[in-house]
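Worked Example 4.2. Read the sequence first, then its structure tokens.
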Amino acid sequence: MKQTLHIITGPTAVGKTEYALGYAEAHNAEIISCDASLIYRGMDIGTAKPSAAERARVPHHLIDIQPVDQPYDIVAYVRDAEAAVAGIFERGKSVVVTGGSGFYLKSFFAPVIDTVEVSEDLKAAVARLHAEEGLVGLLDELRRCSPAGFGNLDTQNPRRVLRALERCKASGKNLPTLQAEFAARPEPYAAYAKHTILLEREKNALAQRIARRTEQMVRSGLVEEVEGLIQQGIRENPSAASAIGYRETIAFLEGRLKRDELIPEIVQNTLHLVKKQRTWFRTQLRAPDKRVFI
């Protein structure tokens, strides 16, 4: 029988940590985090990072592996996750993957890394075009590079248009060809079975849980945590500084947000994230093997 990746996901604050711990203990498993913010050391309170006691119960991987001032991307995550999966199975344990970061989660089901290499000079040239002529200029140049069309590209997203133009110029291929080649790449972890559990809560119950958790984070020292992270250079790393809970607290510390606005702002942004996550689970994640309402 194939070894199995047990994948547990769901919207933020739904209760993934607690559920995954019990599930891992029941299945003799170790846990691989699939959360983009848990990667960073020092981002503890605002991420609801598993506690030392929880991590002592079950070994965790891909938590606290990167300084907060140094970016970490999907290429590094795929590399580190593959190594963690292999190591866990070699130890005779089962693998539980848990988290709600969509792109990281998708890396267990579909190719996510682009193999087209783009030089720094080309990136700079395309960035200059964007700065000088905006999205219109990018699209005009992309039409010249890809007369066969744009395929399924979101042409209203400047970042994706910029990336598509870089890839076309670097490869000499049109966009539909590049998209077809990417779609034809093999599924990751094809040697393993995958069992996916989607955790859910009733909408109002989850909203109340988010509000309580946010209040507890602030009482537990979120502001003080972010003050320390600023000293460590979090603002030099957009991926970390833009995480919900951290971007609002940075805004407060910089005087762009009042104290009584901090908690409501975090709660509101978290609810927006939950809405996006639920859409992603519905449209991007293969149908789960099991839905659990908790």
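Now turn to a second chain, presented in exactly the same format:
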Amino acid sequence: MTDARAAQSAMEVALRSWPELVARPLEFAAHVERLKVPARDLASRGQELYLAFACSRGDAAALRILEREYLTRARRVMSRVNRSAEFLDEASQALRERLFVGENARIVQFAASGPLSAWLRIAALRSALNLQKARRNQSDLLTESLLELPAPAGADAERYRELVQSAVDAAFATLSTRERNVLRLCYIEGSSIDQIAALYGTHRSTAARWISAARGRILDQVSEGVRTKLGLSASEIQSVLVRVRSQLEISVLRLLGGDEQRDEDASVTD
């Protein structure tokens, strides 16, 4: 059993380093015991363990400290994967979600077996690599699903493929960092509208509008891109748009995390 006095000492070191933190001695002692932190790790890195613990409790001061002293360096690690500001913003938000959101928030798992900075660098690199992989796969997956539809009568199959790919790429390029993030939270992470709203500090109706608008723009832009570039007649346009919209709805949901709509999705289609 971890010595409660060692946990108390680690907390006191953290409070001297960061006076804005709130003391939670009993909760921290239980946290240390639950993680089975060895005495040597508690002695050498207990200060960082307490900071991570405070972040897991939603302590605003702790979150500011982590952002200021640790996450800015993690961003530099992510820049090795992709240097664009837009990518780094999205990857940084994904890292925060991974660390702080939901029952499986990763910050709770930091057990001081190594420096917090090194632990966060690994988490940041993993988030950036996952995002880069997801971006590569998004257009390909969606295009493959759309191309399950036969090319319209009289249309060249290869030309049809090129047009659909172009429309998909253009549609996803219009999404903002926030829109990609809320779609991922909703469909991949399974977060409820209330959880997403809390993460962004906004009302649930606003979060619902963000999700609905992002999905709707993808649907509309791909449909319009296919319509205009194929140069179809009025009747052909209606037929193709119905088919494309129906298939695209399924494709977007598959792309974002599953074949079936989650319960939360019903609240964002109004």
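Notes for the reader: The chain has two domains: 4-124, 147-268. The two ends are 54 Å apart (CA to CA).
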